[in-house]
Fold GntR family transcriptional regulator.
Amino acid sequence: MERREPSRAGTRIDTHQLSELLGEWRADGHSAYRALAASLWRLVRDGRLSVTSRLPAERDLADALAVSRTTVASAYELLRAEGRLISRRGVGSFVAPDRAPRSASAVEPIDLSVAAMSAPEPWLSRATARAAAELSTYTDGHGAFPAGLWELRVAIAARYTERGLPTDAGQIMVTNGATGAFTLLARRFGAPGDRMVVEAPTHPGMLRSLRLAGIRPVPVRLREDGWDLAAWRETLHMTQSSMACLTPDFHAPTGLLMPHEQRRDLVALARAAGVTLVADETVAELSLKAALPPPLAAYDASDESGAVITVGSASKAYWSGLRIGWIRADAPTVRHLAEQRLGLDVSCPVIDQLVLARLLGDPGVQAEVLDFQRERARAGRDTLVALLRQELPAWTFRVPAGGLALWARTGGISAREVADAAGRHGVRLAAEPHFNVAGGSPDDHVRLPYTRPPDVLAEAVRRLAGALRAPRCAAPTRGDALTSF
């Protein structure tokens, strides 16, 4: 297949950002340029560098990493020789967009780098048919609704009220996924160069939204048993940031659930520090065991102070093909965000909003869909737990009470080594550095989604166990490139 040359429009990677992503890239026993080349390619496999990304100039990266220009030039040359980098004089060096074709004997890859379920059928098709029939009621107008379709906002607000957080439609703004929500909030509460507090580890999509707004994330590491409120208190006061992001319900990627007492105390800490908490509830509806505590915003006594803003999404509980998210905030904030949005993405597709309104607007349909999705997730979780205990007994993990993935400690093996070895055996994984603010350490967990069918999970774990029995010294091949998000 003919290789496509990258265009001048390839995403340019900031030198400082790339230096942070590389983290501790040097490896004992390896020449510096080989270690740098391997670390750069690992960022591509982890999904932290996308294909066609434009890398910094050799001199700029050398200065940022405090190495010689020869080291960077040799690393780039090695990647070019392996077909992983394309350089054009006067334009720059780009991650190669195409992978080499697999051999006929190569196994079909199993992608466990994405934690998302297939669509809930037949409900999605029925909702889509109804939405298509109703679309004509909107086609006489311009079709742009910066705050979202009113009927969808009503349905989302009703669900919050049902969960113990009284909400009206004026407090809801519909966004292009949770990513669109975080992008808007980052611009509302921060400016380039500002610092914002985040959990560590955390979801890389949220980090990308902050960095695109020029904001520097400041991590607060989770303990094995949950949130360290003393560390949160210290960091909130030290950074003097205006916003902090967290996932209290089945935290990504650990699966932890914040208990009632910590929710109450953390909201009080934020209010005292004058910080707005942004709670990511993307997977909150996927509780597989006990009832959830109330939403984090329910612990804000006035609910008008702006101490807690909530972000939700249809991508996990319903289907990731519906790129619809939302923000719950006080009404003045929603109005401000809707005005600010006109300079960004303006609105969400009307048809997608109508589809979700049909799924959420009928309480009976909503209950059927959520029960169906929870049962699928529960079956996948229980299958994966049994497989890991049988095939990889040295690995340890907490069985999550909800969400879509399991966070497994890799038994003393580097998670990046595990991901590399798995890739050579046809399984794509996201290793812990993918979820760290600056990459690098710690590096002893992998995220394992249980969203695939049981037979696929069984084959994935079988391959993974086989990969860890094989030698781990070989470099990953081009055909193993990971596209994780």
Summary: Residues 59 and 69 are 6 Å apart (CA to CA). Confidence is low (pLDDT under 50) at residues 1-9, 100-105, 473-485.
